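Structure tokens please, single chain.
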Amino acid sequence: MKLDNILKNNLRNYLLSQLSQKIISKTIEPGISIAIGIGSRGITQIFEITEILINQLRELGAKPFIIPAMGSHEGANAQDQAVILASYGITEKELGIPV
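Here you go.
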């Protein structure tokens, strides 16, 4: 198995174990909207982390959406920051949720 696949599987397993804790699943009510803040500070596997989080929230019945969380990057406006997110593959088309 390639190192990338091992890392991705370990990341997925770790995130799922954290997201499946009762404290989280008890807090999320079906139909609730949840914002996911995504930054731009060189987070390794940011797309994979985001995708896993989105899928788990959906599984719990939530309606996740993404907001740029980059402070002053790109003029501190959401439209320009969305361009940075798109460079990571984080788009509405790719993930199926609003950005």
